[in-house]
Amino acid sequence: MSAKAQVYAWAIVLTIIGIVLITYKNIKMGIPLAPGKLQNTWVVESIIEFDAEGGPVKVKMTLPGYFSNFEVLNKYGASEGYGYTVDEHGDRQAAVWSARDKKGPQKIYYRFSMFDTEKKAELAHSVPDKLTKPHFNDLYVKAINGLVEASWRTSADAKTFVMELVKRIDSKQPTQNTMLVKELITPKYPLERLIRDMVRHKNIHAKVIRGLKVEESKRKVAAETFLSVYDKEKWHIVNLNTLEFGIPNDVVFWGPYPLLEVEGARNSKISFSMLKNKESAQALAIRNNLNKNSTLLNFSIYTLPLEHQNVFKLLLLIPFGCLVVVIIRNLVGMPTSGTFMPVLLAMAFIETTLIKGLIILSVVLLLGLLIRFYLSRLNLLLVPRISAVVISVVMLMAFISVISFKLGFDEGISVTLFPMIIISWTIERVSILWEEQGGQEVFSQMGGSLAVSIMVYFVMTNSYVQYFTFSFPESLFVLLALVLMAGTYTGYRLTELTRFEPLVKEE
User: Fold this and answer.
1) Which of 128, 287, 346, 491 could be bridged to 456 by S-S, CB 3.0 to 4.6 A?
2) What's the mean pLDDT when you consider all of the chain?
3) H or E stretch including 52?
4) Terminal CA-to-CA distance of the chain, rounded, Å?
């Protein structure tokens, strides 16, 4: 395989790798391609209140099992003075607090944060256990059978059967059977459990679950009651208050277990408060995937300390600057003083701002050239002469910083951000170029360098480029492929079209 064919092959492979990784992070990890996108985040806090009786206390709270359109970011349940564990038994997950000796009014908090994924999660379609028919007192069996059979005849499936049952029980003109059945409703045997048992009476699996509607700035609200019915190999959720079937987009659900169990206390209750925020979609996606121990992100720059991440934010921009230099030099043909001096200058301009940076750079170069021209008259050797220029540049930088600070111009202090060695070599190169080829060539190369550095500056300070390089470092694979492809170009440059124009006219 020829060298050119190898370059093309590598370019294709690198491009595919870069695009695949970028697409994966965007679609699977939820990292947006453009900056500025905000996402809703929610903090939900459970407040458990009770009166301890002066002995050991154990509090058990069932944790949410289905989050609909939301995805959990983190959970926090530790409370001062209580031991905290998470108990998992079967498909039930519960937070457990315990203490050896507590007395009087107590409060325990459990908090979890989540974000809106705008994509509803699938409800687990687990096969229910063997159905155990409920047992009713003989006094009510006939009335229940009559109510169940009447609802069954006027229904077509489990959904309409539940709706018919609820309508008959809530009817403003109840029948004798309805009035008798409603006598079963007590605080220990609420309406939802009665309906669940009546549904089970027809060999249909049903269970009572709790749901919390997520709303902005709500304080001390209670969870709502829902009924989950198994029909056609799927669980269906119905709101017993509104008789709406289906999974709401803004409700978090608990399983068919007691929401709160307290031992060693009385007057226990639980309520919920919610707070809505907006957060960067990029930061949210990164944090969420790091919490999930994503392999791709666990070996990325996001795991570095923030100080080093800030360094990489700048370093990752350099390849884009290099690409600009490659295009300008190899395809356009604009001359520059040094190959990648424009990139280094652009990095300094990012810290100083463009106009201030150009002024400071011009002053340093002008004074440095004057010193260099004087040193050339002393007939010094190359290395001592360049060393003398470096020392002189350092002294110039220190002098400019001190004077500007004393005069109240803090911008002059940023002169130290310029690459000192590069400037020293530039001064040496410009002075030799002046002596050998004249001032016109000096202005051509220096003007080209400044023009390219300004272009690189605008590319590197573009908010989209800054965001994309940091969020998707995999884009460097694509940049490398472009640079390799540009390295095989041997045709005319744009500036050479003007240069050879007279030959075209003669033909």
Assistant:
1) 346
2) 82
3) strand 38-62
4) 39
Provide the pairing of β-strand 92-116 with 38-62: antiparallel
CA 192/CA 210 separation, integer angstroms? 11
Please name the residue that has the structure tokens 């908010």: 463
- At residue 67's C-alpha, the angle toward residues 62 and 71, to 5°, is 115
Which residue's structure tokens are 């272009």? Answer: 455
**Rounded Cα distance, 159 and 167, in Å:** 13
Q: Which of 287, 325, 369 is nearest to 479 (CA)?
A: 325
Structure tokens of 50? 């009770």
Determine whether 44 is exposed, middle or buried from the number of CB atoms within 10 Å of its CB (0-12, 13-18, 19+): buried
Q: Rounded to whole angstroms, what are the CA distances from 139 to 121, 144, 145, 183, 350?
A: 44, 10, 11, 11, 85
Q: How far apart are alpha carbons 366 and 247 in whole angstroms?
A: 72
Helices (H), 210-305: 281-291, 295-298
The Cα–Cα gap between 272 and 47 comes to 6
Which tokens belong to 32?
């947006």
Tell me which residue of 100, 467, 481 sits closest to 313, measured CA to CA.
Answer: 467
What is the DSSP code string of 106-135?
A: EEEEEEEEEEE-SSPPPPP-PPPPPP----
pLDDT given for residue 412 in this prediction: 55
Please check whether residue 326 is in contact with residue 419, taking contact to mean a CB–CB distance below 8 angstroms: no
What's the helix, strand, coil split of the chain in %, to 5?
Answer: 50, 25, 25
Distance separating alpha carbons of residues 85 and 94, to the nearest angstrom: 9
Tokens of 190: 């609420």
Backbone angles phi, psi at 131, to 5 degrees: -75, 130
- The 8 Å CB, 24+ separation contacts for 473-476 are 473/300, 473/301, 473/316, 474/17, 474/18, 474/21, 474/22, 474/25, 475/18, 475/22, 476/18, 476/316, 476/319
Phi and psi angles of residue 463, each rounded to the nearest 5 degrees, phi first:
-60, -35
Q: Which two tokens stand for residue 506?
A: 């003669």
Prediction pTM value: 0.65
| Residue 443, both tokens | 């202005």
- The span from the CA of 472 to the CA of 365, in Å, is 37
Q: What is the mean pLDDT of residues 238-252?
A: 80
Tokens of 424: 């020293």
pLDDT score recorded for residue 338: 67
Please tell me the predicted confidence (pLDDT) of residue 12.
92
State the CB neighbour count (10 A cutoff) for residue 306: 7
Measuring CA to CA, which residue among 377, 378, 371, 429 is closest to residue 396? Answer: 371
> Reduced to 3 states, what is the DSSP secondary structure of residue 311?
helix
Report which of residues 106 and 396 the model is more confident about: 106
The CA distance from 507 to 504, in Å, is 5
Q: Which of 368-377, 386-395, 462-471 ranks highest by mean pLDDT? A: 462-471
